[in-house]
Amino acid sequence: MSVQQLPASVRRAGRALQAAAGLAVAAAGVIVIDQAVGGGLAERLRQSYPQRSADQIGMAESSILTYLFTLGVLGVCLFAAMAWAIRRGRRWARGIGSTAVVLGSVLAVYNFSQPHPLVMTVAGVVPCVAGLAAVLLLRTRESASYFSVERKTSA
User: What's the CA gap between 49 and 63, in Å, rounded?
Assistant: First the structure.
C-alpha cells in the first residue's frame, strides 16, 4: 500500500510522529543552549541542595544531563521507528508505540517534580504531546481497520 492509499488518520499519525522526533531533537537543543548560556541546571541544583559540595553538584548535573539526553535519544529513535512501522501496517507498532509514548509522557511529567530548569522540563513535554496525538490517531476506527488487514511484509 502506498503512502497515498494510507487512511488519513494513519498519515496524520505518521506526520505527528515525525514532528515528535523533530521536537525531541529540538528539546535536546534547548538543554544544550541552556547549559551553554547559563548553566541553569547547576544553578537550580545549588538552590535546591545548598548543603552539597561543588563536586556533588557537578556529579548530579552530569547524571541528570545523561538521563535527559538518553530520554531524548530514545524518544527520537522510538518516534522514527513507530512512524516507519505504522506506514507499513505493522500491528505491533500501535501497542508498543502507545506504551512507549505513555511511559515517556509519565517520565516527562515526573520531571516537573525534579530540580530541572523549567525550560528543560517543558521542552521535554512538547514531543510527548505530539506523540500522544499520534497515539490517539492510531486508535481511531479508520486506523484500527487498516491495522486489522493482514499484509505481506516487504522490506
Answer: 15
Q: Both ends of the chain: CA-CA distance in Å? A: 13
3-state secondary structure the chain: CCHHHCCHHHHHHHHHHHHHHHHHHHHHHHHHHHHHHCCHHHHHHHHHCCCCCHHHHHHHHHHHHHHHHHHHHHHHHHHHHHHHHHHCCCCHHHHHHHHHHHHHHHHHHHHHHCCCCHHHHHHHHHHHHHHHHHHHHHCCHHHHHHHHCCCCCCC
Q: What is the pTM of this model?
A: 0.83
Predicted pLDDT at 151: 58
In angstroms, the CA 111 to CA 122 distance is 9
Supply the pLDDT for residue 86. 92
pLDDT digits (tens, 9 = 90+) for 90-141: 888 888 888 989 998 999 899 999 888 888 889 999 999 999 999 999 999 9
